[in-house]
Amino acid sequence: ASLAWSPVPDPSVSTYFVHYGPQSPNQSGSCAYESSMSVDSPSATITNLEPNTLYYFTVSAYNGLESACSNEVSTVTPPPSV
User: Which of 24, 43, 49, 61 is least buried, going by the fewest C-beta atoms within 10 A?
Assistant: First the structure.
């Protein structure tokens, strides 16, 4: 899954955390997802996802402290290739 988002205008933000998983915490701003990864640019590609599965994604910014998570987006991964 490839994600991209608008960078935070704060120059002290050096890292973003992408949080994701097959279940949503159903709570605005929550970062309670099964997995996360850090990236240093406002985009990410997440690999090794289960095929044909609904995943939820959200992003937080980090400048020594982690921000609340962004609005959640979701997608269904493609079925396995034969």
Answer: 43
